[in-house]
Amino acid sequence: MTSTPLPDALRARGLRMTAPRQLVLEAVRRLGHATPEQLHDEVTRTAAGINLTTVYRTLELFEQMGLVTHTHLSHGAPTYHAADDQHVHLVCRGCGRVDEVGTELLAPLAATLADDRGFAVDVGHVALFGLCRDCAGEGSR
Amino acid sequence: MTSTPLPDALRARGLRMTAPRQLVLEAVRRLGHATPEQLHDEVTRTAAGINLTTVYRTLELFEQMGLVTHTHLSHGAPTYHAADDQHVHLVCRGCGRVDEVGTELLAPLAATLADDRGFAVDVGHVALFGLCRDCAGEGSR
DNA sequence: CTGCGTGCAAATTATTTGCATGCGC
DNA sequence: GCGCATGCAAATAATTTGCACGCAG
Question: What pTM was computed for the model?
Answer without folding.
Answer: 0.83
